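Try it yourself: sequence plus zinc ion, in.
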Amino acid sequence: MSLVNGTEIFKAAREGHYAVGAFNTNNLEWTRAILGAAQETNTPILIQTSMGAAKYMGGYELCKNLVEQTIKSMNITVPVIMHLDHGNYEAAKECIEVGYNSVMFDGHDLPFEENLAKTKEIVALAHAKGISVEAEVGSIGGEEDGIIGAGELADVEEAKQLAAAGPDYLAVGIGNIHGVYPENWQGLSFDRLQELADAIDLPLVLHGGSGIPKEQILKAIEMGISKVNVNTEQQIAWSNAVKEYYAENKDQAEKGFDPRKVLAPGTKAIKDTVESRIKWFGTPAVK
Ligand code: G3H
Ligand code: ZN
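Structure, out:
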C-alpha cells in the first residue's frame, strides 16, 4: 500500500469510535520515525507538514517526494496519508497541485462567509483530483508555526454550514490549545463536542493533541473525534533525548559527534511517542 487519501480511513474511524493519529514531520529523521511507528504497529497513519515546516524543508514538492521515497526505501506497507496541516488558501492550492493526498484549509481567521466560500473552492479543486479536505471552525488556542488562535468554542450553526460545504473532516475548537497546556487549562468542552457530534456526521478533528490527559482523549474519540493531531509531544521527546545524549557526553566517545549517532536517540524517542499515541487512539491494525 502506498499513499492514499483520508476520506475512507477517517469515515471508518468515526463509525468505529477510534481515531487515526496525525503526526507532524520536520525532516528526514521525523519522517522515518513516524512511518516506522506506523509500520511497527501495522496501522494507517497521517503524516503532515505545516506551512512553516514545509518552507524549512524546501517546499511542498520536496516534502511530498521525501515521504514517498521514504515509504519506498523503508518498505512501508501500511496506508499513509500525506497531509497539509493548517494551510492557507495558497498553500492548499499548491499542495493539491503537487499531489498531497489531503489538505487542511484553515480559514478560521477569515470572516466566516469567506472561510465558507474558500472552503468550497478548495473542496472542488481537491475532490476533482481525489484529494481529501479538512476544514476548521472555531480557532484552536495557542500558536503553532505562526498560526495563532484564541481558542474559542466552535459555533454549532457555523460548523453545520461548513460541513455542508463538502470537506471530508472538520477540525473543531472545543477548548483545545496548540503547544503546552497552561496549568489553569479548563479541559475539553465535552458539552460542545456533544452538540457538534450530534449535528455533524463527518469525522471530527482534535488539534493540540499534546498534553491532553488520556481519559479526555478517549472520551472525545468515543464521542466522534476521529483524527487527533500531535506535534509538540514529539518535539519534547526529541529535545529531551538529544539533551540526554550530550549530558552523558556521548558525543565524546567513539565518534559520537557523527550526526547520525547524535540524531539516533531523538529519532527513537519520536518513534516511541508516536507508537504510544497510536495505541491510545485505538487505531486498528491493517488486515
Ligand atoms: O496541527 C497540529 C496540531 O494541532 C498539533 O498540536 O503541537 O499541541 O500537539 P500540538
Ligand atoms: Zn493544529
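One thing you can check immediately is this: The pocket of zinc ion (ligand 2) is lined by residues 86, 140, 144, 178, 207, 229 (CB under 6 Å).
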